[in-house]
């Protein structure tokens, strides 16, 4: 399973077509294992006091009646608290509590799962779901989704991971609605609706950035952890809202209009909207936000912010598609780039709404 350690030859399961991704996965595995001893022995835990917090060596210490307290230690409490509110990517092989804490930490509500454990669990899950995932993803898309899954489980735990999986399954399901008719009309998704690496990252890069920021502690760059989690949910809700609007609009939209001037255009036109697609956009964003609420990732008021942000961002994406996409000089503005901008708008709106409306 682990390959030849003497020659550093990769195991059979790593012999995939995508050479670049194979090297990345192999490098992460070996790096994680080599860092285990360092992480577990170097005392870089949240309770350690950084050396920079001690400006000079204490000359004397007074005993206290409480053996747990030491007085006259010249440490700035504010700096210690600030350090404790931040964390690092967990590269340890097993939790600090030992093997008995593997399962509790692996399914922790707060994330911070050791990276190697996340890789192992995702490998098992992706292997178990390989038949289904192969019908939804291209071979390279499969392994890029695997890398995404490892990052999400490490930073946000099982809740963040399942929100993304829910997006994937719901998005794939709505893509298949009247697929034969859409394919015949030339407006269906390419490759039979299977997602490639560009689709994976166009849809989830914003979410992964929010997940990483949320894993840094109670506050990161002046923004609270709960706000980053809300932005994560909103980014994926935005993409699902966009997928629902597009696929339902193409399947059932009777009349489609260009969002910029409301002129009638054929279904599938970039920037086209319809009543059916607009209603579906509301459903898609609310559906994924509701799942995040059900598993305790967000609250009811946050659900409203996430769903509304997703809907507004989806309409902004239609405007971008109508005015910028496929225009001369903007050939780089591909559908995947627009998707990334779309999710970034949704996450930004959620951050703004959470901060100024919910006072988070």
What labels describe this entry?
two-stranded antiparallel ribbon; single chain; mainly alpha; 360 residues; 12 helices
Structure description:
By secondary structure, the protein is an all-alpha fold. It contains twelve helices and four strands; from the N terminus they run ααααααααββαββααα. It has helices at residues 19-41, 77-84, 102-106, 115-128, 130-134, 139-175, 179-185, 197-214, 225-252, 275-294, 300-323, 335-356; strands spanning 219-220, 223-224, 257-258, 272-273. A two-stranded antiparallel ribbon has the order 1-2. Strand 1 (219-220) and strand 2 (223-224) form a beta hairpin. Helix 4 (115-128) packs across helix 6, helix 6 crosses helix 8 (197-214) and helix 6 (139-175) crosses helix 9. The longest helix has 37 residues, at 139-175. 38% of the residues are buried. The model is unreliable at 1-18 and 20-87 (pLDDT under 50).
Alpha-beta classification: mainly alpha
Q: Let me know the average pLDDT.
A: 79
**What is the rounded Rg?**
24 Å
What profile does the largest beta sheet have? Answer: 2 strands, antiparallel
The succession of helices and strands, N to C, reads HHHHHHHHEEHEEHHH
Question: What is the total tally of β strands?
Answer: 4
Number of helices: 12
- Amount of helix: 55-70%
Low-confidence stretches: 1-18, 20-87
What proportion strand?
Answer: under 5%
Shape: globular
What is the CA-CA span between the terminal residues? 46 Å
Strand order of the largest sheet: 1-2
